[in-house]
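Write out this protein's structure.
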Amino acid sequence: MTTNNPFDPAPILEGIRRWVEIETPTEAPEQVNKLADLVAEGYRGLPATVERIAGHFGCGDHLVARSSWGQDAPGILVLSHLDTVHPMGFIERLPFRIDGDSVFGPGIYDMKGGAYLAYHAFRQVCADGAPPSLGITQLYVSDEEIGSPTSRALIEAEGRKAKYVLVTEPARDGGKIVTGRKGVGRFEVFIKGVPSHAGTRPEDGRSAIRELGNVIQTLEAMNDLARGITVNVGVVRGGTRPNVIAEEAYAEVDLRVPTISDADELASKILNLKSRTEGVSVKVIGELNRPPYEKSNAGAALYEHARTIAAEIGFDLVDTSTGGGSDGNFTAPHTATLDGLGVDGQGAHTHYEQMYISSIEPRARLLYRLYQTLR
């Protein structure tokens, strides 16, 4: 391979390795900030400004890198996150290593590989010396893996200013790009009953756990796979001892919905759950924390443009919808958004997480050409 190829996978992989080897669990802000230092350092000497937004509520800092050109008009926003789901020390279990076409490491697929490709493509645009017609803003957030609580307002504000949004989340199933994602809701259910002795005075008690059983059945019945609606009761707690009728019970619920109207309907059903047991109260709190990302006309046109570029580079870009949420959910309702532009691989959030070396060059080139050609 000739060294004058600006998309030679070997040096790009070396850059990805440096990002991966700084572990960045969302709940370790000092680690996320260590990576933010390295990322910010990478823009030194480039025609760009880097703004650092101090983290709060136990999360790390966010970085906004803006090209020095094109900032007076709506341009391209690139969304990436620096945090991973893997706890500190996980790199001992999943060290950075190459095996054939696969490279392993915590967060390499979701999404340090893709974030690095977007950065590398930006460097290449700068190296060309002739700025493209649109300004480029790269936003690196610290809290995507927990639903982006401290970065959502920033993502939405930048998204509204942009003409296009490119999200460097990993590709799906063999390199597919994402043009739709389900909305995500999170809810907590609090049930209060009346305690009593289970042996001597059971009739005096009102079991919160028994009512939780009713609530779980009601929630489970809301699942509608044909419509793409999933309701999962993922955490339950309740009671104090086996010989006490339970006074309290609790559940955490995850909701996934494909459309805005489904979101309104299901969130309202969940928030209005009623107790079926006399003397027992049910209270539900929560909300949709990511709106559904539906394939809009603008998003479809952006996808067609990317597909044409991919064909020129020499690969077929297929699109898909997925059940997982991303920061693209926040921008898609009002700005043309294309997601899943990161590396191909498999095993997000697992102990075998990996990216494919063969996806580095084509996907870096795709990002680079998108920066160059979007108008």
